[in-house]
Amino acid sequence: MKVIHLTDIHLTQSRDQKVFDVNPYDNFDFVCGEIARIKDSTEIELIIVSGDITNEGDVEAYRYFFKKMESLKTPYIAILGNHDLKHNFDIALTEEESQYIIKSRGYKNKSWHITSVDTVVEGEDFGFISDNNLAELAREMAENSHFNTAIFMHHHAIPVGTPIVDNCMLNNGKDLLDLCEKHQVKFIGSGHAHTARIWHHNTMTTCVAPAVVFQWLPAIDSVKISKGVGFNLIDFSGDLSITSCIY
Ligand SMILES: [Fe+2]
User: Fold this and answer.
1) What's the CATH number of domain 2-246, 3.20.20.70, 3.90.650.10, 3.60.21.10, 3.40.50.10090?
2) How confident is the model at residue 246 (pLDDT cuts 50, 70, 90)?
3) pLDDT-derived band at 238, boundaries 50, 70, 90
4) Which residues lie closer than 8 Å to 231 by C-beta, 6 or more apart?
5) Which of 23, 41, 143, 201 has the largest count of CB atoms under 10 Å?
6) CA 39 / ligand 1 centre spacing (Å)
């Protein structure tokens, strides 16, 4: 099963509004063009968008997001990040004829169980998984123990070494990682760090996808970016492999 993992698109209120001199609409259009170009030859089964779809949570930005995602004619899961507003996401979602969005948290094929967890704390940049959500995740893992499990979320659980984002990462990442070890989860994917990064520990791979909008320069603690655009292509069949497509 091949999956595209998009994250941190940061669509602004209007098309002419930039984020640090980058136009997120241009980047998102470009990435959608690339997905359209490769999706049939690469046999993409699913797209996962792991949050910060918008920069300020505007309804118009979510409308644009849904239109573009639907145009790809591929099932997709949309997870929210600290820059998103669920209320406005839901308004746009009910307006659009969304044929391809998967409204449940997860997706299954014959050997993989793909699920997601909410890490957003309202009004905060850092992330936290509530006790209820952790318990729900544990239940889900136990019920699906005969599947390989992959979990997607917004905030990164392991520091990437860049203070500007590690200062607001997932606060209880250790609890999640311990739970995932216990249930032999194969893969954890996130965004938020605007950095491409992969860790292997025992049989688990933890991966931060590059952002669609821009990347932070490695190790910085103030605002300095690289204008690179990226996403990950994850192959869950056979040996798990990850291609970071960076432009
Ligand atoms: Fe974020």
Assistant:
1) 3.60.21.10
2) very high
3) confident
4) 4, 5, 6, 7, 31, 34, 35, 209, 210, 212, 244, 245
5) 23
6) 26
What's the pLDDT tens digit per position in 53-66? 999 999 999 999 99
Percent of the chain having pLDDT more than 90?
92
Answer whether residue 221 shows pLDDT above 90.
no
Domain ranges of the chain: 2-246
What is the distance in A from the centroid of ligand 1 to the CA of 10?
A: 9
Q: What is the pLDDT of residue 128?
A: 98
Q: How many A from CA of 220 to the centre of ligand 1?
A: 16
Residue 145 C-alpha to ligand 1 middle, in angstroms?
30
Could you report how far apart the first and last alpha carbons of the chain are, in Å?
Answer: 24
- Say how many Å lie between the CA of residue 89 and the centre of ligand 1: 16
**Mean pLDDT across the chain:** 96
* Nearest alpha-carbon partner for 20 in 220, 197, 167, 235: 220
C-alpha 102 – ligand 1 centre gap (Å): 22
The amino acid at 84: D
Ligand 1 centre distance from Cα of residue 164 (Å): 11
